[in-house]
Amino acid sequence: MDPGDPGDLADPDALRPRLPSPLQEIEDERFTRRGVRLLLKRDDLIHPDIPGNKWRKLVPNLRAAAAAGHPTLLTFGGAYSNHLRATAAAGRLLGFATIGVVRGEELADRPLNPSLARCAADGMRLHFVSRAEYRRRTDPLLLDALRERFGAFAPLPEGGSNAAAVHGCAELGRELRGLAEVVGVACGTGGTLAGLAAGLAPGQRAIGFPVLRGGFLDAEAERLQRAAFGARAGDWRLEDRFHGGGYARQTPELDAFASDFAARHGLSPERVYVAKMLYGLTVLAEEGAFAPGTTVAAVITGTPEPGSPA
Predict the structure, then answer these.
(1) In Å, how far from its chain's centre is CA 130?
(2) DSSP labels for 237-298?
(3) Do residues 299 and 172 touch, judged by C-beta distance below 8 A?
(4) Among candidates 302, 55, 15, 11, which has minimal Cα distance to 171?
C-alpha cells in the first residue's frame, strides 16, 4: 500500500486527498528573462484541513498509530506550528485524542494565538513547557514523564519528521519526475526534503531552504534518509541564506517580496516557510544559478493562517 494512502484508517474518506497535487505554471519575468520556467507544486491544495507536506507526513504515522491501537497522539511544536494544527485536525477527523507540547511556558498565561486556538477548537490538549524542557523532547525520560501525566500515547516527533514521514514525502518527488530539473522546498525539520529528494528521478535535484538558523539540517535530513532508506538518497543540497534571522522572523526584503509576489500572481505566500523558499529561488534565478531552459518547481506547502506572522 502507498505510505500515504489513508485507506486502512477508521474513516479514510475524512482524509481523502487531492493527489497528485496540482502543478501550476506562472509567468514571472525574474525567471523568464533568464530562460527559466517556474512551476508551483500546489501541495497546499491536497486537503482542506491537512494541507501540503503535513498530509504526506501525517498519514503514514496515523496508520501506524491506528494499527498499534493507540487512541491518543502526542506531538511537539511552537506557537505557530503547522504540524500542531494538522495533528489536531487529523485527531478531530479520525477520532484520535491529541496532545500538543508547546514550546514556551510563558504562553500558558496569554490568550491563545489563532494557530493554537485552532488546535484547541479541534480538541487538542495544549501543554506548555519551558524552552529548556522542550529541547529534551527526544529524551525517553521526558516521554516517560509525559506518559505519567497524560497516560498512554503514540508520540509523533516535532514537525512529524521520522522514517515513516520520509517515505510519505517520497511520493512528492515521484509526482514531479520528468516535470522539473530543480525542485525547491522550505525546510523546518528536514523530513519533506529527505523524502522529496529520494523520490525524484536521476538528473533532478532538490534545494532545501531552511527557515531556522543553525546549520543543522544537512545532518538531520541525511539522518532521516538513512533511517528511511539505509543511505543518503537523491541529489539535494541546502541553501541557508534565506532564513531571515530564524523561525517566524522576517526582514523588510522578505516582506516586500511576499507582498510583491501576491500582487503579481494572486497567491499570498505563507511567510514562515513558503515566502522564504520563493524568495530564495527568485534570488538564485536572478544570480544566474539556473541555466537557460531549466524548469524550476516550487513546493507550496501551506497557506497563510489568519493571525500568523505576516
Answers:
(1) 24
(2) EE-TT-STTSTT---HHHHHHHHHHHHHHS----TTTHHHHHHHHHHHHHTT-S-TT-EEEE
(3) yes
(4) 55
pLDDT at 15: 75
Report residue 161 as a C-alpha cell: 519528521
Query: Is residue 47 within 8 Å of 15, Cβ to Cβ?
Result: yes
Question: Cβ–Cβ contacts within 10 Å for residue 237, how many?
Answer: 13
Residues 109-151: tens digit of each pLDDT: 999 999 999 999 999 999 999 999 999 999 999 999 999 999 9
pLDDT of residue 304: 64
pLDDT at 4 over 80: no
Q: Which residues does 297 contact at the CB level (< 8 Å), separation at least 6?
A: 23, 39, 40, 41, 176, 179, 180, 182, 183, 184
Cell triple for 242: 534565506
Grid cell, residue 89, equals 485536525
pLDDT at 310 over 60: no
Q: Tens digit of pLDDT for each residue in 278-297? A: 999 999 999 999 999 999 99
Average pLDDT score over residue span 35-49: 95
pTM of the predicted model as reported, rounded to 2 decimal places: 0.91
* C-alpha span between 290 and 260 (Å, rounded): 22
Residue 73 pLDDT level (bands cut at 50, 70, 90): very high
